[in-house]
Request: fold
Amino acid sequence: MTARAESLKERVLQGPRPAHVGIIMDGNGRWAESKGLPRLEGHREGAESVRAITTAAREVGIQALTLYAFSTQNWGRPRGEVLGLMDLLRTFLLQEKRTLLENDIRLCAIGETHRLPRRVRKALEEVEEASAGGRSMTLTLALSYGGQEEIVCAARELARRAKEGELDPEAIDVATFQGALWSGSLPPLDLCIRTSGENRVSNFLLWHMAYAEIVVAKELWPDFREEAFFAALLEYRQRERRFGLTSAQIRERSR
Ligand code: FPP
Reply:
């Protein structure tokens, strides 16, 4: 870690931190193209950022880290890129299993994981099972994930339960709906970071985005390392989270 990253980390540790951070890891392709490399090299370097940021998040006490690793829409990318990403994912899971266990990190996945190739599903299940007791941080990979698809799937499930007489439609409230989501057991999303300077949510954790603070970092994901991550956490600390209330009410409550 750079000296500047160490000093930012100290500042992060001295104050409140978000409990749940989600990251839209964008810019792998542009990183590679800017260097005249194949796009897959960008994803490979992006996997190094995943390692660095997971460790950094754990070190500063983030309870839940959710990474947008592969969207429902990403299936439409060229076949070679999709296969390359799947291989990368499998390698990452198998290589990181030990580190995750040593650091008491639980790994989970959300999304239509049944669409992943068998070899990836197997690796995922293996790491999910082995790390199920991890208590220091939950690392959730959004894989074959789409926020709209997740909400539709929850609505379908609730409609089915209502049709079968297990659920009174009038009893459906925010908590019931959230409980039917793939991400239903995740804590509220406090901070969503998007890299590469793009101001978009891109179908990521739409439900949880309700009161999330959004920080857009200029770095492309492969360049997004500890320094940029800690800077985003410090930017989050400057925000006033009002949850629909007034500033005066928030000040009153924090007295
Ligand atoms: C977006 O960059 C990134 C992805 C679609 C994939 C993210 C994958 C990784 C970070 C590596 C593997 C993941 C893990 C968990 C090990 P982009 O390709 O859309 O970039 P561009 O906008 O510059 O083209």
User: Anything to note?
Assistant: The chain has a mean pLDDT of 97.
